[in-house]
Amino acid sequence: MTWQRSLREAVRSGLSVERAQLEPLAALRGAAGVAVVIALALWLTTPAFAASCAFGAFAAGIATFQRSWRPRPVLALTAGGGLAVSTFLGYLAAGRTGAFVALLALWSLGAGTAWALGPTSGVVAALTVTVMLVVVTLPTSVLGALGHAGVIAFGGLVQAALIVLFPIRRWGAQRDALAEAFATVADYARRLRHDPMAPFEPEPMMTARSAAAVTPRQARRRPAQLRGGRAVAERIRPVLASLADPALGAASEGPERDRARQLLGGAAEVLDAVAHAIRTGRPVRLSSRTAAALEEPEGGSPLTGPARRAAGRLTALLEEAVEEANGPSAADQAAVQGALLRPTVPKLLPLAVRAVRREMRWDSPVLRHAIRLSVVASLGYLLGRALPLGHGYWAPVTSTMVLRPDFSQTYARGVARFAGTLAGLVVAGAVMRFAAPGPLVCAGLAVCCLGLMYLLLRTGYAVTSACIAAYVVFLLGMIGVGWHEAVTDRVLLTLIGGALAMAAYAVFPAWETPRLRERLADWLEVTGRYTAEVAACYAHPADRRRHRRVREALLDFRSARLAWDQAVGRARAEPVRHRGLSPRASELAKDALTLMARGGMLLEAHLPPRDAPPLPEADAFAEAVRSTAASMSAAIRQREPVQAQLGSAGQRTADPVLARAAELVTEALEDLAHAVRAPSTAVREK
Asked: Where is the Integral membrane bound transporter domain (predicted)?
């Protein structure tokens, strides 16, 4: 993609407004937290101090709206504590420009590396940089700095207290995640009715698993509906694929296919009902038509062999899903032991250190983002001080909020920041010019803008920027800053800050396009391991440890596929020529590895019982898959000729499941080899 087209796509993305599910009660609660802090500060101190205090509650409120499975009060307290520390340190160094720039550079570097822990950590860490830049412009003593830091932390405490006192839809996010997982499996069943080889999108299952991780205290309190349903949905997925497969399950035409379509349609309706029950917290309600579709026909089922076994397993699993959604009867202690336990803060620290260490390499997007953020924040601060404009901190604040580890988000947010800020400043400036509100009215308008920002936070960054800009104008109007100064200066400084962020990415990029081959090799390796681990269960059915290995390999496969999808999405927006893996080759490679994973999924649908006789051919097939995947991965990384050398392993067997899986894996590896052997000359896309 050319630079011209990339910039055009960034403008379109930045100015787009998305439809999103609004949370008015949560937005009202977040705005109330800011209102409480401002009101107390106005009552006890000065408007200038109240403006400073508002930032703690404001940023803590933003933290609670981030996509995280941590308890919302914990997010608010963590954000408030981080803001307080950054503010206090900033005040200590604010009197000396060199010391403050050094502190700002180091703090920004640390905030950038926080992206190694996830997007929520990265966003909250960036907020601490912005608050440090804004609040320290108010002169004070060391004792006053402690007071400011304490009040900012108090803002986070207020937000946490309001969440505890006025909870809104407890466990709502976890319910939605689990319901979406069941709805995804239901959609998969519907697509299999018309396309027996339809792929399965695993991201909702990964989200549901992340949502299921809880602390021991949460495990004792979470609703019964959220305790075991995800595992049932996981087991239903391969059974659906096995039933629909034309070679292993029902025949492609005739009574078998009609019965398979009937079962798949009934399964979809049951899964949708389970999803609705989980989302609303009500019992599952099934229609008589759905129950009739799953019952055995009067004349007997036309299904035979593996298809009949799959139909029986599907019916049993659907009954289990309904029972789980209606609330399993399990003791609290059993619920705690069976839960995915989220690490506590002391246990989280070593994990965080290891995550950051993994990113300490020169080609890491996180490390490059941290360096860009550190340089741009420092340079923006110095530039803001040198320019003959008031509120020079607005330029580095804009750069900090715009910069992201990838190209598309950085440029789209830069456009959205400028357009939204301009709109917000014009509207708020017009109100200040023609209405001339007093300090109390300005405070009320600021809180209203903030509530609107919380409400529309997920609709687009341009809308969010407009609300924040209006909030700042009214907050400064509360302390007597002229509207014309706020509007004019901030338009120019926003433009400068956004340009700095965009220029920083262009000068020191972290392109994803050249790394696609590495991502593909990683995905191939874990796909081969998953398929091999499932096949090994047929060779060693009595070894129960292999089932755990299958689960671990499946999770690794999903993580690698998600990383691939995200990398391809970022690469498509980059103004970079491909280097050996064109967009068409990427699509073909994805189709091939999806087909390979389907072979493992069919094997998983018919895992043998512990007392089943071993299948020696499965061991040879597993070893062949491992070695072939490893050699092809190495060839892809080193840009060498790729050859699929699986041979006939697994196909010469009397077991129909293993034979079908071997056929799919062989076809997939050949397709993959063909995709990466395609001409790789760098061609600029038109």
From this structure: 380-503
pLDDT given for residue 682 in this prediction: 37
Of the candidates 558, 523, 533, the one whose C-alpha atom is nearest the C-alpha of residue 676 is: 523
Its sign, for the CA torsion 597, 520, 675, 3, is positive
Is residue 127 within 8 A of residue 397, CB to CB? The reply is: no
Q: Which residue has the tokens 């498509």?
A: 572
Block residue for tokens 């307080």: 84
283-333 pLDDT, tens digit each: 888 888 888 888 888 777 788 888 899 999 999 999 989 988 886 554 444
What's the number of CA atoms in the CB half-sphere (13 Å) around residue 244?
27
Give the C-alpha separation, 205 to 224, whole Å.
Answer: 19
Determine the Cα–Cα distance for residues 280 and 174; give it in Å rounded to an integer.
Answer: 12
| pLDDT tens digit sequence for 222-242 | 888 787 788 899 999 999 999
Q: Give 340's DSSP letter.
A: E
Side chain identity, residue 21: Q
DSSP SS3 for 213: strand
C-alpha separations of 608 from 301, 303, 658 in Å: 23, 20, 11
| Residue 684 pLDDT exceeds 60 | no
Distance between CA atoms of residues 423 and 425, nearest Å: 6
The candidate with the shortest Cα–Cα distance to 64, out of 32, 96, 39, is 32
Task: Give the pLDDT confidence score for residue 331 in this predicted structure.
Answer: 41
pLDDT at 499: 92
Query: What is the distance between the alpha carbons of residues 184 and 237, in angstroms, rounded to a whole number?
Result: 10
Report whether 227 contacts 328 (CB < 8 A): yes
As given in the structure block, the two tokens for residue 145 are 């700095």
**427-442 pLDDT, tens per residue?**
988 898 888 888 889 9
Neighbour tally for 92: CB within 10 Å:
15
d(C-alpha 381, C-alpha 194), whole Å: 59
pLDDT in the model for residue 105: 94
Phi, psi for residue 99 in degrees, rounded to 5: -65, -40
pLDDT top residue among 142 and 86? 86
Q: Give Cβ neighbours of residue 569 (< 8 Å, ≥ 6 apart).
A: none
Q: In this structure, what is the dihedral angle of CA atoms 200, 205, 207, 213, given to the nearest 10 degrees?
A: -160
Inter-helix orientation angle 24-44/142-165, to 10°: 140
What does DSSP assign to residue 343? P
Q: Cα–chain-centroid distance for residue 453?
A: 21
Q: Report d(CA 131, CA 50) in Å as an integer.
A: 14
- Spatial neighbors of 675 by CB under 8 A, at least 6 apart, are 585, 588, 589, 592
Number of H helices, E strands in the chain: 27, 2
Rounded to 5 degrees, what angle do the CA atoms 657, 661, 665 make?
175
Q: For the chain, state the CA radius of gyration.
A: 28
Instruction: Kindly tell me if the per-residue pLDDT of 123 is higher than 50.
Output: yes
Are 658 and 621 spatial neighbours (Cβ–Cβ below 8 Å)? yes
What phi and psi values does residue 340 have, to the nearest 5 degrees? -80, 105
The residues, any chain, with a CB within 8 Å of residue 650's CB and separated by 6 or more, are 535, 617, 618, 620, 621, 624, 658, 659, 661, 662, 665
Q: Which two tokens stand for residue 602?
A: 């069919």
Spatial neighbors of 415 by CB under 8 A, at least 6 apart, are 10, 11, 14, 15, 462, 498
Mean pLDDT of the chain: 86
- Residues with Cβ within 8 Å of 371's Cβ and at least 6 positions away in sequence, in order, are 109, 112, 508
DSSP 197: T
Distance from C-alpha of 536 to C-alpha of 617, rounded to nearest angstrom: 10
